[in-house]
Structures are given as structure tokens and as C-alpha cells.
From TrEMBL:
<keyword id="KW-0812">Transmembrane</keyword>
<dbReference type="Pfam" id="PF05118">
    <property type="entry name" value="Asp_Arg_Hydrox"/>
</dbReference>
<keyword id="KW-0472">Membrane</keyword>
<keyword id="KW-1133">Transmembrane helix</keyword>
<keyword id="KW-0223">Dioxygenase</keyword>
<dbReference type="GO" id="GO:0016491">
    <property type="term" value="F:oxidoreductase activity"/>
</dbReference>
<dbReference type="InterPro" id="IPR027443">
    <property type="entry name" value="IPNS-like_sf"/>
</dbReference>
<protein>
    <submittedName>
        <fullName>Beta-hydroxylase</fullName>
        <ecNumber>1.14.11.-</ecNumber>
    </submittedName>
</protein>
<keyword id="KW-0560">Oxidoreductase</keyword>
<feature type="transmembrane region" description="Helical">
    <location>
        <begin position="6"/>
        <end position="22"/>
    </location>
</feature>
<dbReference type="InterPro" id="IPR047694">
    <property type="entry name" value="Lipid_A_LpxO-like"/>
</dbReference>
<dbReference type="InterPro" id="IPR051821">
    <property type="entry name" value="Asp/Asn_beta-hydroxylase"/>
</dbReference>
<feature type="transmembrane region" description="Helical">
    <location>
        <begin position="279"/>
        <end position="298"/>
    </location>
</feature>
<feature type="domain" description="Aspartyl/asparaginy/proline hydroxylase">
    <location>
        <begin position="69"/>
        <end position="222"/>
    </location>
</feature>
<comment type="similarity">
    <text>Belongs to the aspartyl/asparaginyl beta-hydroxylase family.</text>
</comment>
<dbReference type="InterPro" id="IPR007803">
    <property type="entry name" value="Asp/Arg/Pro-Hydrxlase"/>
</dbReference>
Amino acid sequence: MKWAIVFIYIFSILFIHFRGRVRLPFLRQFFDHSSIMSPINLFMYAFSRVPAVPYPAVKEFQDLALIDQNWEVIRDEAVALREMAKIKAAEKNDDAGFNSFFKAGWKRFYLKWYNASHPSAEKFCPKTVEILKRIPSVKAAMFAELAPGGTLNPHRDPFAGSLRYHLGLVTPNDDRCFIEVDGQRYSWRDGQSVVFDETFIHWAQNGSETNRIILFCDVERPLRYRWAEAINGFLGRTMMTAAASPNETGDQTGRVNKLFRFVWLAGQYRRRFKNWNKTVYKITKFGLIIAVALLIIYA
């Protein structure tokens, strides 16, 4: 049984690694957070009703048309929010999922995050929140801002139970401001939307001189069977809700992000160790990884 679990994990990681045309370096992929989730993601891919392509057609997600039709209403609330300086980076190291983006000038304001509570969203963006409530397939949503010169490094998101929807609100309307998914580039435009599979390697850049603000949503991946959809829904309600991050005091902070505050502090010591001696750091890191792997195999 133990060896069967090891085989499933290794097979799942290899499947994720070779999926698509663009790949992370093998060792990075092997220890990436998406590899931890790889058996679950293999399940999602096996029962997905969506073609395994970087950009599924937006028209196939008919319920999202309501968002497209109200893009100007949504844009106006985003602009008002930006003027109040409410679209911002996390202030207390309590956003593990997007922590690495903040140093690139990326900012966010959560409108919805699975089953978590965000009273600040209803207070400042009531019209947008009401529109989102009418679309059950939208499990998470936020306004996301990328400053001029900002670059988000290549990565793949860890959970394949959703697809990503972007709607241009206030964009440079410039090909220098783009996202690239599995080697295929898309440039945002005001009032235009796109759906992509965020479990392919993707990265983004704003090479223009103006800010980019989009509506960013997680849309539940359509699966072939109701029982598979029920499993996906359960994972969203439990696992993804635990990753909730607040906009302001009074919003819910999930268990993952409560723990992340301590992980972030430990990371400061890790970086000091790495800066002291990179060779010793690498030897220690891989020694610990091998020790954990042997412990799992022979326990």
C-alpha cells in the first residue's frame, strides 16, 4: 500500500511536469507546491469537461457573460476603490497564496473567496458583489493591480479544481502588458475577458507606463459527473476557504494564512542562512528533503 501511494505521487508529479509545452526545471517542479496537490489535480484532469488547452473559449462559460455585460459598473467600483487606496498588498504577511507577487508591485482587493467572509467587499463594492452572487460557478474574485514594470515570474497554481477568468477594467490597452500561458501570450484590453487554465506554467508583465487593473476570478472547473463535482465543491469549501486572506480588520483569515505568519518569520531566518553560505544551505536543504522522503518510505 505504501509503495502504491509513492508510485501514485511520483506518477502524478511527472504527469504535471510534462503537461503542456512549457515546464519548470525538474527539481523545482518536484518540490513545488503544485506537486503536493498533483494526485488531486490528476483526478480533476481525468474528469474535466474542459479541453486540456491553455485558453478554453470564454463563450463556453455562458454564465460569465453577466460579468462581461456589466464590466463598466465593475470598473467604476474598482476605480473608486483604487482612489481610496484599498487595492493593496497584504499588510500582515497573511496571504500565502500571493505573497511572492507583492514585491513585484502586484496588489489585490478580495471580493469573494470561497466560503470565507469579506464584509469589506460588500461595504465598498456592493454592485460587483451582487453580480458575483448571481454566478455560483465563481468561487473567488478580486480586483488585481499590476504596476508599471511589474513582472510575475513563471509558476503554476496548485489547485486544478478551478479555471481563471480575467476581465480587463483599467488596462494600458498595450501589447507590452500581457500574460503568457504555456507559451501563448494574451494582452489585456478594457472590457474584454479571457479564461485560462492556471495549472499550466504562466507569467505576466506590465511593460507599459500605466497601471493595469483587472477582475480576477476562480471559476469552478466543469467536471463530467455530479459525484466528481461534489468532491471538487468539498475541496473548495474546506481546503481553499482555509487560504482566505483579509482586506481589512473584520474580514476572515483562513487557517493556512494564520499559520503562514509563523512560516514567513521562519523564512526570514532561512534567508539569512542562505545569504551566509549558499553551498551549506543547499546541502542542508536537500539533506532534509532526502531524510523526510526516507522517513516516509521506511516508516
